[in-house]
Amino acid sequence: MLPKGAFLKIIDNSGARLGQIIWTRFGTAGAGNVVKVAIKEAKGGKVTKGQMKKAVVVETKYPTRRPNGAHYQSLRNTAVLLSDKGNPLGNRLRGMLGLEFARPRWKRVSMLGKRLF
Amino acid sequence: MRLEKCWFCSSTIYPGHGITFVRNDATTFKFCRSKCHKNFKMKRNPRKVRWTKAYRKLAGKELAEDATFEMERRRNRPEKYDRDLVKKTVKAIERISEIRVRRQERFYEKRMAKVKGQQVARDKQQLEQEIHLVKAPASLVSDKAQQKSKEKLKVAVEAKQQKQKQQAQGADAMQERAAVQLG
Q1: Which residues make Cβ contacts (< 8 Å) with residue A40, sequence separation at least 6?
Q2: What torsion do the CA atoms of A112, B1, B3, B6 make, to the nearest 10 degrees?
Q3: Candidates A9, A68, A71, partner chain B, best to mutate (most B CBs within 10 A)
Q4: Is the CB of residue B23 less than 8 Å away from at least one CB of chain A?
Q5: CA distances (Å), B30 to each of A29, A66, B112, in order?
């Protein structure tokens, strides 16, 4: 349930630390949704502050609902940076991915992480 | 579909209920309802919260170790579907829960057996000390006086009856003697 203007912690090793959402497809973004992000903080890596990149939301504080009725929530709002084509910019992930990333669309992102919970 | 156990109170979480919390270090905590979730957020230790199974088992109020508990383990390898196996498993589940319930009830009865005698003594003490909560002390005194007068009456009545009986017996005896004399 992240709207425009929300801050996301970037959990891959692309160099960015914090990103602010500047565009969502449906007004609010949940786990597994792609957003456009302006990078507010960056340290080293391939990305610098002030750039606009695509990202996929990984964890949200607001509970994510699964089709079986289960709800899960996290302590923070996180995202993974993507290239324009949709492939992850970093090559390592620090965090857990939900089953939302089991789809073939997110195959490359899920391969970075350890396992899906 | 899998039935989970609530992290806080150890009750079963049925599908569609409760919430799962994923911490930053990727540990998951499952809660059956918001009560348990809120207690967790308050950083309460379930082993100290009295209504949880964790507390009860630790405090010896409930059966903690038993072979029937070992039967219900989390198995991560999915079994290939076999109708006979499912039938047997369902039957086994029923039988095992029957045994478990029986053992738990026996444990409870054993624990409560010592309490009955204590309860009677406690009730007696309460009756003696706290009767003022039920009846006013003044009325108690008048009750006692009433009872005393009742007893006095009873004793008097009994004495009178005895006397009458004796008189009647005496009269009978005299009649008999008279009859004998005449006859």
Answers
A1: A7, A17, A18, A19, A20, A49
A2: 40
A3: A71
A4: yes
A5: 24, 15, 33
- Average pLDDT, integer, range B22-32: 92
| Nearest CA-CA distance, residue A113 and chain B, Å | 12
- Taking the C-alpha atoms of residue B50 and residue B54, their distance in angstroms, rounded to an integer, is 8
Cα within 13 Å of Cα(B110), Cβ side: 10
Beta carbons of A7 and A18 less than 8 angstroms apart: yes
Report the residue of chain B nearest A60, measured CA to CA: B22
CATH of A2-112, one of 3.40.190.10, 3.90.1720.10, 2.40.150.20, 1.10.10.10: 2.40.150.20
Contacts of A63 in chain B (CB under 8 A): 19
Query: Which of A68, A69, A75 minimises the CB distance to B24?
Result: A75
User: Which of B15, B16, B19 lies nearest to residue A63, judging by beta carbons?
Assistant: B19
CA separation for the pair B57, B71 (Å, rounded) = 18
pTM for the predicted model, two decimal places: 0.73
Q: Do A71 and B23 touch (CB under 8 A)?
A: no
Q: Do A72 and B21 touch (CB under 8 A)?
A: yes
Domain ranges of chain A: 2-112
Q: Dump pLDDT digits (tens) for B143-154.
A: 888 888 888 888
Spatial separation of the C-alpha atoms in residues A63 and B19, rounded to whole Å: 8
With a pLDDT cut of 70, the percent of chain B lying above it is: 99
- pLDDT digit string, tens, across residues B96-140: 999 999 999 999 999 988 888 888 899 999 988 888 888 887 887
Kindly state whether B34 is in contact with chain A, defined as any CB-CB distance less than 8 angstroms. no
Check B16 against A95: CB less than 8 A apart. no
